Amino acid sequence: MALPTMTPEQRAAALEKAAAARKARAELKANIKAGTVTIAEVLESQDEIVKKTKVAAVLAALPGYGKARVAKLMEECGIQESRRVGGLGANQKAALLEKLA
Asked: What is the Cα gyration radius of the chain?
C-alpha cells in the first residue's frame, strides 16, 4: 500500500505532532524514574500519550529494572512484549501492581 501524498504543511504538522508525543513520553519516563508518578497512576491514566506508550518502556523507567528484569516480569504477568498501556486488561494491571508492590 502506497503512502498518501502529503503537502509540505501536512508533513510539517505531522512531524510536530510526532515530536510532541516523543517529548511527552520522555517526560513520563523521567517522572517515573524520579518517583513523582507511580505505576498505579500510569496504569489508570486516561491520557492518550500514556495509553500509547509500551508497557516495557514504562517498566524499564523504574529504578532497578532493566531489559531482563522487565521481560521476566512481563512474562510472569502474561503480558506480550508489544503491549501498550492502554491495551492492558484488568487482570494484567492487577498482576503488575501485585508483583511491583
From this structure: 16
